[in-house]
Amino acid sequence: MSETILELKNIHKRFGKNNIHQGINLSLKKGESLGLLGGSGTGKSVLLRSIVGLERIDQGEILFHNKRIDNLDEEKLTPYRIKISYSFQTGALFDSINVFENIAYPLFEHTHFSYSQIKDRVGEMLKLIDLPDREEVMPSDLSGGMQKRVGMARAMILNPEVILYDEPTAGLDPANTLNVVSLMQRLKEKGLASIFVTHDIPSALMLCDRIVVLHQGKIIFDDTPLNFQASNDLIVKKFNATKD
Amino acid sequence: MKNVFQVTIDKRLEKIKEFFIFIGEIFSLLFQTIQCTFTGKFYFSRLMEQIYHLGFGSTSITIVIGLTMGLVMTLNFGYGLTKFGGTLYVPAVISLSLAREMAPLFTSLLVAGRVGSGIAAEIGAMNVTQQVDAIRALGTSPIRVLVVPRFWALVISLPLLSALSFAVGIIGGMIVCKSEFDIIPGFYFSKVFSTVKIHDYMSGIVKSAVFAGIITIFACYKGLNTKDGTKGVGASTTWVVVTASILILITDFFISKIFLVIWN
Q1: Which residues of A touch B (CB under 8 A)?
Q2: Most buried residue among A153, A156, B120, B205 by CB atoms closer than 10 A?
Q3: What is the reported pLDDT for A244?
């Protein structure tokens, strides 16, 4: 059995009077892909943001390799943010710099690589995301799908242990969805653990080892994709119905 | 059940609480900016880039405002003083008011409009498009990356811009003195240099540096706290220009008072 690298214990989060999470317990094993499903506004993205400390939880614990990280300040979170990478829904590329500078940003910040080493590493990443020779292009000149892939490349460039995908296929046409999903598949094959927040059930069933369903602040389903499809739970069935 | 009076009091108390939280956050941002300057990574290239954008980019508008101030003030003071036989005092009056008040104040107000709104809009747009979150998620600090270079760039640039505004204003004054009141440039400059003392220049420099701090901290704070998409960005820029301008005017009075108490 693989070791657990990320663990969420009894997570509570509220915004004003709105209870978003009411005791979430979740664990992620090394190399595992976890699909996180749920209706809009159920706090899927908030959960991902909480893991990397972009949101602070009100109660509970987040452990990475059994080390508590939810109570760390911004400076102390840095080494964990290198190991747990976040791929934003929109890509969140820095619009004032080009694709090369965007992907290279973490390398310039956290490594002592020479410029030629960084250039080689970015080149490899661009090949991996099927966007070779696009170093000089500005983010605004890329399509939505390309921006997401560049965002993923930037999130992966420091070889994290976990990557958190926030709706990577949302708003993409089928061809671009396929591109993004195949990229995620390649990363999975490299042994990268991931949490995949999505409404795209077919992609989640194809990629994930486990499916988790979030409903009214709680996890109501946590099992394999096969059992997800066979589930008799009414809410799970509703999600299943959307896959076709 | 609360009555209307209690509800009103609660609302007022809530507003007061929000105000103190806001003040605390502004000082916290200032403290963190200074702390980040002297600890950890410093982005020198970003500082130079910001000096170019915020400082060098404001030179043309500074020259225009400086020249206009010099020309208009000299014209008005000149005709006013001539009535009482005080034409020869025009260079002294102009140089003192430019050095102590007009050059730093008007330059800073102009820069608050140009640079303050620009910073708030840029960081605000980054915030609503999750770029600020991306900076954090990639293990870097938005304060270190965005605030520190802008803060120091303007603290360095604004006193220089004020000095430029003063110099151009003095030249404008000289032009009017020569053409309207037959004051020769030699006499004009000798009066200027003998009237304006080091503490007058210092007053202008200190004021400009403080105003620069006010502009950048308020603009960065508002940018980092921008919500509600493009509408929020627009609201942030307006808020920054109005707030920074009012604070500059209020602070100007107190710094002037401090300098007058110290040097007189």
Answers
A1: 49, 52-54, 74-75, 77-79, 81-82, 85-86, 88-90, 92-95, 105-106, 109-110, 154
A2: B120
A3: 58
Average of per-residue pLDDT across B233-240: 93
Q: Which residue pairs from B58-65 have beta carbons closer than 8 angstroms and sit at least 24 positions apart in sequence?
A: B58/B110, B58/B111, B58/B114, B58/B115, B58/B157, B58/B161, B59/B161, B59/B164, B61/B110, B61/B114, B62/B107, B62/B110, B62/B111, B62/B161, B62/B164, B62/B165, B62/B168, B63/B164, B63/B165, B63/B168, B65/B106, B65/B107, B65/B110, B65/B165
Contacts of A160 in chain B (CB under 8 A): none
Task: Please tell me if residue B52 touches chain A, with a CB cutoff of 8 Å.
Answer: no
Residues making up chain A, counted from first to last: 244
**B26 located within any domain:** no
Residue B151 lies in a domain: yes
Within-domain flag for B82: yes
Range of the domain at B178: 44-263
CA A200 – CA A18 distance, rounded (Å): 26
CB atoms within 10 A of CB B4: 7
Size (chain B), residues: 264
Task: Give the number of domains in chain B.
Answer: 1
Q: Is the pLDDT of residue B176 over 60?
A: yes
Average of per-residue pLDDT across B233-248: 94
What pLDDT digit, counting tens, does each position of A177-215 carry?
888 888 888 888 888 999 999 988 888 898 899 999 999
Query: Is the CB of residue A207 less than 8 Å from the CB of residue A195?
Result: no
The predicted pLDDT at position B1 comes to: 60
Q: Mapping DSSP to helix (H, G, I), strand (E, B) and coil, where does residue A78 land?
A: helix
Would you call B139 and A92 a contact, using CB atoms and an 8 Å cutoff?
Answer: no
Cross-chain CB nearest to B131 (options A86, A89, A92): A92
Question: How high is the ipTM of this complex?
Answer: 0.89
The yes-or-no verdict on residue A132 having pLDDT over 90 is no
- Sketch out chain A's domains with CATH numbers: 4-241 (3.40.50.300)
Question: Which position has the higher pLDDT, B4 or A9?
Answer: A9
Residues of chain A found within 8 Å of residue B134, distances taken between Cβ atoms: 88, 92-94
Grouping H, G, I as helix, E, B as strand and the rest as coil, residue B53 is helix
What is the per-residue pLDDT across B8-46, written as a single tens digit (0 to 9) for each?
A: 888 889 899 999 999 999 999 999 999 999 988 888 999
Q: Measure Cα distances from A203 to A242, B36, B113, B167 in Å.
A: 12, 43, 49, 67
CA A55 to CA A41: how far, in whole Å?
A: 15
Residue B4 lies inside a defined structural domain of this protein: no
| Tokens 């890509």, located at residue | A91
- Collapsing DSSP states into helix, strand and coil, what is residue B146? helix
Task: For residue A124, give the amino acid letter.
Answer: E
The reported pTM is 0.87
Instruction: Give whole-number Cα distances, B68 to A139, A194, B63, B100, B195, in Å.
Output: 42, 62, 8, 17, 22
User: What's the token pair of residue A106?
Assistant: 């973490």
